[in-house]
Amino acid sequence: MAQETGTARVKRGMAEMLKGGVIMDVVNAEQAKIAEDAGAVAVMALERVPADIRAQGGVARMSDPDMIEKIKAAVSIPVMAKARIGHFVEAQVLQSLGVDFIDESEVLTPADYKNHIDKWSFTVPFVCGATNLGEALRRINEGAAMIRSKGEAGTGDVSNAMQHMREINGEIRRLSSLREDELYVAAKELQAPYELVKEVAQKGKLPVVLFTAGGIATPADAALMMSMGADGVFIGSGIFKSGNPAQRAAACVRATTFWDDPKVIADASRGLGEAMVGINVADLPAPHRLAERGW
Amino acid sequence: MKVGVLALQGDVREHFSALIACGVYPTTIRRRAELDAVEALVIPGGESTTISQLAKSFDLFQPIRDRISHGMPVYGSCAGMILLADHILDAKADQESFGGLDITVRRNAFGRQVDSFESDIAFADGTPTPVRAVFIRAPWIEKIGSGIEILAEVDAHPVAVRSKSILATSFHPELTGDHRIHRYFIEEVARGALQQVQ
């Protein structure tokens, strides 16, 4: 019987399997193993975590294929990697390396300030960031199989993740309350395709999985975002920029599953050592705010 | 019938909808007391390493193992199949399963996500039409022990099997909106096994 690869169902289904889980940024095979042992559902292979990209500046690009291969060889869980916004050749390279998911990410320096990657033309699924519903639907229209609220990566400040999740889910709730003949204008205002707007209004949810990212640094942060309606959590700098990564990683995994049980979160939060130092998003000058990349 | 869906991680919601469509109202299982309250269990798709890790941390691992060995009906899809297999190949070092099915599965046997696929396959429940099967970084079965019935195969590898009270598929019927396999689990596997106990 014919076997069809890269269908929307196969790509979106992959994202469904990650639900309720934590995806962790790792920069080498050792960190990837620590993440896997702690119960991560996937790892994001990158050369520098966002906090370091932020500190060191310069142009941030796709990771070295050798480094991605080493991480793939080290763990049995899915391996994701980041491509620059609009850099479809980086994405083709990552697909040829056999990564399981590509993050078209604002954390890297954009390659195209107008267009994102046409993600339908790939077999590998993509996750893209969004700060609001219109942005999320434009990415889904381009073929994203998963959305993550952007937050502000590399800060350890959860406030933007919170704001973006409230924004996306608030707009979904608003759409659900509209009359059908009001959806045309809603689509215009959201700058998103009418068909997707209608689908969201009917179902009361995005057609793909919605994760959260950007500034999550503690088990309580992870649980907060889950209770805001996230399907799962990306933790970037928060784990390996902290005092005790193995323990913090496991604690965030537990808090993500038991997000509605403060006792479990309290237990998970004990004795974790120092969290990443962090930067207040409010202190970041506008050009250094990554969430504003992507359109 | 009281059916629980193991809700530590994975596509719990999809199994929930499929079970509701089959006329059972499921509950989520994250704690021992919740497990004790159900008669049958569904283990969803997800990451088998994550699910077994969390089951161990929250005192569910041994209780699930014991319930299965005492005949609780269970259905596992993909990660769920891995967790029901007595033997796992290409496992993470020290990875353990609940076990119960005398089979050897190979994790990610069909390849990485770029090799994931969907296909129409025959499913031996007496219905002539094929099922649409979605395979995501899916395992296959390399060896089967005695008392295991093969229900579906792809490329000569078993991808759906049952024993008396256990059903396992390496694909995800919960993603297609076709509830035939969940119905098979409830009506054929679970109801039969529970009646025997009574």
UniProtKB/TrEMBL annotation, chain A:
<keyword id="KW-0704">Schiff base</keyword>
<keyword id="KW-0663">Pyridoxal phosphate</keyword>
<dbReference type="InterPro" id="IPR001852">
    <property type="entry name" value="PdxS/SNZ"/>
</dbReference>
<comment type="similarity">
    <text>Belongs to the PdxS/SNZ family.</text>
</comment>
<dbReference type="GO" id="GO:0036381">
    <property type="term" value="F:pyridoxal 5'-phosphate synthase (glutamine hydrolysing) activity"/>
</dbReference>
<feature type="domain" description="PdxS/SNZ N-terminal">
    <location>
        <begin position="8"/>
        <end position="213"/>
    </location>
</feature>
<dbReference type="InterPro" id="IPR033755">
    <property type="entry name" value="PdxS/SNZ_N"/>
</dbReference>
<dbReference type="GO" id="GO:0008615">
    <property type="term" value="P:pyridoxine biosynthetic process"/>
</dbReference>
<keyword id="KW-0456">Lyase</keyword>
<dbReference type="InterPro" id="IPR011060">
    <property type="entry name" value="RibuloseP-bd_barrel"/>
</dbReference>
<dbReference type="GO" id="GO:0042823">
    <property type="term" value="P:pyridoxal phosphate biosynthetic process"/>
</dbReference>
<dbReference type="GO" id="GO:0006520">
    <property type="term" value="P:amino acid metabolic process"/>
</dbReference>
<dbReference type="InterPro" id="IPR013785">
    <property type="entry name" value="Aldolase_TIM"/>
</dbReference>
<protein>
    <recommendedName>
        <fullName>pyridoxal 5'-phosphate synthase (glutamine hydrolyzing)</fullName>
        <ecNumber>4.3.3.6</ecNumber>
    </recommendedName>
</protein>
<dbReference type="Pfam" id="PF01680">
    <property type="entry name" value="SOR_SNZ"/>
</dbReference>
<comment type="pathway">
    <text>Cofactor biosynthesis; pyridoxal 5'-phosphate biosynthesis.</text>
</comment>
Automatic annotation (TrEMBL), chain B:
<dbReference type="InterPro" id="IPR021196">
    <property type="entry name" value="PdxT/SNO_CS"/>
</dbReference>
<dbReference type="InterPro" id="IPR029062">
    <property type="entry name" value="Class_I_gatase-like"/>
</dbReference>
<protein>
    <recommendedName>
        <fullName>glutaminase</fullName>
        <ecNumber>3.5.1.2</ecNumber>
    </recommendedName>
</protein>
<dbReference type="GO" id="GO:0005829">
    <property type="term" value="C:cytosol"/>
</dbReference>
<dbReference type="Pfam" id="PF01174">
    <property type="entry name" value="SNO"/>
</dbReference>
<keyword id="KW-0663">Pyridoxal phosphate</keyword>
<dbReference type="GO" id="GO:0042823">
    <property type="term" value="P:pyridoxal phosphate biosynthetic process"/>
</dbReference>
<dbReference type="GO" id="GO:0004359">
    <property type="term" value="F:glutaminase activity"/>
</dbReference>
<dbReference type="InterPro" id="IPR002161">
    <property type="entry name" value="PdxT/SNO"/>
</dbReference>
<dbReference type="GO" id="GO:0016829">
    <property type="term" value="F:lyase activity"/>
</dbReference>
<keyword id="KW-0378">Hydrolase</keyword>
<dbReference type="GO" id="GO:1903600">
    <property type="term" value="C:glutaminase complex"/>
</dbReference>
<comment type="similarity">
    <text>Belongs to the glutaminase PdxT/SNO family.</text>
</comment>
<dbReference type="GO" id="GO:0008614">
    <property type="term" value="P:pyridoxine metabolic process"/>
</dbReference>
<keyword id="KW-0456">Lyase</keyword>
<keyword id="KW-0315">Glutamine amidotransferase</keyword>
